[in-house]
What does this fold into?
Amino acid sequence: MKTAIVIPARYASSRLPGKPLLRQTGKYLVQHVYERACQAQHADHIVVATDDPRIVAAVESFGGNVVRTRRDHPSGTDRVAEVARQLDADLVLNLQGDEPLIDPNHLDLLFELLLQHPGVDLATLATPLRSSEQWHNPNCVKVVCDDAGQALYFSRSPIPHVRDGQPDFALRPARFLLHVGTYAYRRPFLLRLAALPPAPLEQLEKLEQLRVLALGRPIQVGVVEESGFGVDTYEDYQRFVSLYRHNRIRCAA
It folds into this structure.
């Protein structure tokens, strides 16, 4: 099967405007994400999807592939779907443009999950929750899976609820999972999904993946022990810059 990684990158972020073009490391933030994607073994094609000419110019400056999209997309998924209509690809992976620490092996895992489960149209990732603070934090999306590794539900609330006692975050296999918002789709399903209106549960939780569950379609979840963090705020970006500089010094030594 032919595969593609699409990286939606928007300039007008509400919490950190111009985020893809931050370059205190000497590279654009979107460039770090692009280079991570290039390390995936199963990606035949990688492209940045953006509505902003400044991001187009930046991606072209480092030799990346970029497609200009419409400005009126309500989500990154819709932007990815616009690009996917033009791609010769069977599987399309949506990698957010603010994930500079994504593990390329995790991108390969997403493609592998779809190849291993022909009846599944969407795959995503999760990692074990580490603390009660994460479990209760509504910004940390939780997922509960069945014994086949398919999602039963996603929520901003602490799930699963523990009626007696306290949650054991050290339990393995993990029962308390943090959703990692990277997705791989079968292309026809992605195009169908983007054409549908939001589902009622999706509107309540503000979680797009609930549209898939509302359709009765399975979501295969790959559990990885560690995951990077996304850059949502300037503080997140400074944390990334610090880690990047530390790694450069360590490598030089």
